[in-house]
Each structure stands twice: as C-alpha cells, then as structure tokens.
C-alpha cells in the first residue's frame, strides 16, 4: 500500500454533489461501506456551497476516515472554474476541515514553476494525478521526475480504447510503487476492477453520480465484484461480447462464488476485436470466459480444441483456458434451450420456428432437431438461414409466410428487443400463430415480443430460463461442483424485478 499505509481501506468512495447538504449525505453513505473517501469539491456548484460544506466537515469530520480533497479545474478534467490560486485556497480549507490527502492534477503543479507545493497549506499528503479522457498515452514519462518528487503517490487515469491499453495500465501499477491506476471507459472496466490485485493503492467508486467514464458503483465494487478481496490467488473468469453492459452474467456467477465462498471473480469484457482480447487474456489471468454476441462463431477459429457437439453446432458460448494457455470450447446454450422448452411442450414432431441464424440460433436449432422437432429457420440473411437449415436438418421459411403458417412454438434468437431497445419486437402480433413463444432475450424479462404473445393468449417463456440454465451449466463445468442454483436464480430475478420497478416509476 506504500505511503497510504496498511490501515487505509483500498476502496475509495467518491462523493460528488452540487450542494453541501447532498455532499454531507453522500459522505455519511460512503462511510457505511469504506473509510477512504474522495471529496469532489469541484462538483459543488458555488464557492458558497464549498464554504458551507467545509464548515460542516470541520464540525463532523469522521474519526479514522482518510479523506482526499479534490478541487479539479476544468483544465484537468474537473468542474472547478477558478484559477490555480483558487484551487489551492480550497484545498487549504479542506486541510483545516480534516482532510489528510489532496488530489492535485499535474496541470496545476506545472503552473508553479520554481516553487514547491509544500510551501502551500494544502493537505500534508499529495496524490499527484494525470488524466487523459481521450486515450491511454505513453505512461513512462507522463509525470516527470521533478513532479514526482512533489508527491507522496501518483495517480494515472486514462481512457482505454482497447483491452491492450488497459493491460498497459495494469503493468504500470505492477511496476510502480505508490501508484494508483484507473482504466477509464467500458473497455477498461476489467482492468479497473483488477488494479488492486496488481498493486494499485486505491480503486475508486462513486456513491451516486459517476465522476469518470466506466465507473461501477460503490456497492457493486464492494459487494458484487469484492474488489477489495482480490489477490494473486483469485481465479478470474468473464464474459466477452459487444454490447456487454446489459449482461447479468457477472451477477449470476459472482453470486455463486460468494455463496460457495470461492476466491474467484467474474468480469464483463467489452470486446470489439477478438484478437485484442485474446492477446491480453494471460495478463488478466483468465481461467475461462463466456461468449455472447457477436463472437460465438468467430471464437471457433481461435480454439485449440472443441467438444464435438459445439463443433457440430458451429458456435461456442463457453471457453475454458487450459493450464498451458490453450482454449477449449463448449456450448451450454444447447442445454439451456432444451431445459426451457421441454417442460412446456413435447418436442418430438413439434413444429418450431427459430428467428435468426447466429450463434444462439444454431444451438437452438441443433438442440431441437436432435430432440425430434421439425425446425424452421427465418432470418434476415437468406444465405445464413439456408446454411443453418441445411446443417441442422431443418427448412427455411420466408418472413412473408409467417402470417399464414402456424407452429407449436416460436423462438426468438435475435437481439431485437434487447435492453435498451425494449420497445421493438422482431415479429408483429399478426405473425404469431403458435401455442408458445420463447424469447432468448432475458433483459427485459418480458420483452415486447412476449407482451404481444401474452395479449393474444399465447403461452410465453422468458429468456431468463435459458439464461439461468446455460449459466449454471457453465459454472459447474468450470468449478467441477454443484452450483448454488437457488441463490443464482434469486439474485437474477430480484435484479430484473428492481429494474422493472425502476422503469415503471420513471
């Protein structure tokens, strides 16, 4: 932990608000989770609010808390409109109110040529920070030796444009004592969470308002990802996809790790380029990862081996990293489809329409065909529909025929209707002639397609059932033990209920 000291909590809550009352409330909320807190004075909307909050803090400064005062100017990426002298004034006021540390950006220190920062009455310990909101620049010379001598610790926060960028930040903190690294942006999220494991003195999380791109909340950082407990022995798993922010897979798997008291974590990787991800996988220490849109078929080219069924399907949703670093692929979507539908319908000789021809559609087509169903494929690209129908022993059906054709079940395997585009449906009400409609989308739990079906009196099956079944199968494949199914189901359903309530009230 370097100069932060062994007693300092490594999760740093960020309190940022427009008024002194809101700041005080945020500080109290933060203290329930951690004792290290950054106070973003630049977020307060006026000097009067800053003065009011610091007067309150002098009277209520929490004992044993480590407070970091920040009054970042706009030049350094903050909200403070004042000049350097005004920034230093408020940091001095923060010292008088009980702040032990201040975060000072290099742009401010550069405005003090020939003068030592120590001649100012700022908090006694200085975290010197460099922010780049556009990219991850070369790191070795970002903060000069002269500026480093002014600081007790250094912080580098940079936006990761690629996973390789975020790995550079991890390597930097691994080799730099008394450092804090923050990989900003959604691509940088896994590195942001794993920074503590690599030696970063702090990991930041907002109490409420996000103050930097790619932040996760204080509650998620501590309770979902258990970032403060990550060690070199922690087994790392994840999910790759684009988009990935909607995924509840981290909740599903991390809930199981916590229930079984395992030292493991599951992270979301926004992967735009598979090669970028795969070249960096060893730096994260990945033991396995889930694969979702749009990589379920493309990942096959990068596997050393694959289970025969997944190879036949031509799509993989589960990858295990073997001890020699090679990749072994499986498909648990197959299991998810069967478990979700066979409780509702006798699959043998049933007529089932599958919308889509991607990785999930392929798994569904093979699973249902093997169960004896008559499979029909309808996809936007005719060539993909024909190829899948031929491979799975099914038939292609054109979209125009859906108004007159009837089926035992219709299964949506496209992303149409997925969060956040929840108002659209891949089919209209007049195209739903069936006994059952199943949507592989699980967020929202009740998609627009399922709403249309229910309105017509058609039985519906939420994608949650498949999501749980395939995810539980993945977890058991990696862990070689029974999954805590009830806890996993409870966590996912509660998250979806809370999301639905939030959407209904807004």
CATH class of the largest domain: Alpha Beta
Could you name the CATH homologous superfamily of the largest domain? Aldolase class I
The radius of gyration is: 26 Å
Strand content: 15-25%
What is the fold-level CATH name, i.e. the topology of the largest domain?
TIM Barrel
Which structural class matches the secondary elements? Answer: alpha/beta
Residues in helices, as a percent range: 25-40%
Low-confidence stretches: none
Distance between the termini: 43 Å
Average residue-wise pLDDT: 93
User: Biggest sheet: strands, sense, closure?
Assistant: 8 strands, parallel
Written account of the structure:
This protein is of the alpha/beta class. The protein folds into two domains: 2-232, Aldolase class I (TIM Barrel, Alpha-Beta Barrel); 334-467, Rossmann fold, CATH 3.40.50.720. The protein is built from 17 helices and 20 strands. The strands form three sheets. It has an eight-stranded parallel sheet. A six-stranded mixed sheet has the order 10-9-11-13-14-12, with helices on both faces. The chain has a six-stranded parallel sheet with strand order 17-16-15-18-19-20, sandwiched between helices. The chain is elongated, with a radius of gyration of 26 Å. It starts with 10 loop residues before the first strand and ends with a helix.
